[in-house]
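sorry to bug you again but im stuck and you know this stuff better than me. what follows is a protein written twice so to speak, once as letters and once as structure tokens for the fold. mainly i need to know what kind of three dimensional shape the backbone takes. anything you notice is useful, everything is just below:
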Amino acid sequence: MRAPSFPALPTWPAALCPGIVAAVVITVCDALLGDVGLLPLYAVCPALTACCASPRRVAICGAFAMLLCAAVAGYDDLLFTRRGTVALTSVFLVSVASAVAAHARVQQERRAAQQRRISEFVQGVILAPVPGDTGPAAIAASYLSAAEDARIGGDFYEVVPVRGGVRLLIGDVQGKGLNAVRTASVTLSAFRLSAHDATDLDGVAFSISCALHRRGVEEQFVTAVLAELDEAGRLTLLSFGHPPPLIVRADGTHELAHPPSPAMPFGLSWLDPDPPEPRHVDLAHGDRVLLYTDGLAEARNTEDAFYPLVQRVALLRGASLDDCLVQLRHDVHEHTGAGVDDDSALMLLEYRPSPEPVAPEGRPRLPVQQDDDHRHGPYGRSCAICSVRDCPLTRDGRA
């Protein structure tokens, strides 16, 4: 994830330009119009400079404006009169006030930049960059916050490469703010820990549900889709009250992968403890899958019409996955006309089978119960169930 760039203060010539231009214009107008009382207008010069320059440059511009004001007052024989004195005093006082305001603005910009850097760091911890190539799939991801200058929110995604395939998670926390970020962090941590060890997606879902209840975040629920793609191209989906993924076939067809039996969102399992029924989709080479949050599905235009995702499926057929997401974001912005009012996360994956042999029956070679010769672990401890791909702790290097 690329760090955002923030605008720096204007360079020396540009920073002084507003005040100097104003001072020159006032001088020319006074020379052309004669004695019409333009001297107090020189106070505008440092005020204009304070909008985009440092306190030091504001003070220089104020001194320059006072010098021109005194020169024009002397030319008009007003230097030691009441009008001249009032004009010079006004320019001086406005210069001091502008320098103070510029100092406060610079300090505020520095604090804001520091907060953005901290926010970007936190975002990198919560939403780590997804691996672009996980073996059976190429993956691209995109996150957009509805809050201006925000970098974190309640939407999240994660990809965990495992031996024999890859497991994915995308979700949306109910609510906003720091509580939503905390709930998202708990959910992601539970997924990262359980994705390698759980025998199936039901086990991953159970670990996430337990983690949320242990951390006491029952007041917030999480909609999510758990997915598993093996080397044979079999995609398994579990839906927890989340929008259905969009399957984009290489042959030109597409479909929404509605779950046969969705479950309650995480955090609300006490309302209906039955697990969801998995949806299985067989992918061919070049087929793509878009996983998204409701920030995309519920984006509305000025006429309160939802974004027609299915009708925009052509945007997902480009050569580059990242470019497809960029075009999709741009199209959503064009549809809404005023940006988005909700966070949104996107993941686009393309099935690319590897030439390596596939496990029997096309299922992932994980997680499986290992015998004593294949168990591994530090300090003599063994992992009876493990799906870490290319784990360096395997005794004989066998998968």
Observations:
- The longest helix spans residues 82-126.
- The beta strands are 137-144, 155-162, 165-173, 222-230, 234-240, 246-248, 254-256, 279-282, 288-292, 344-351.
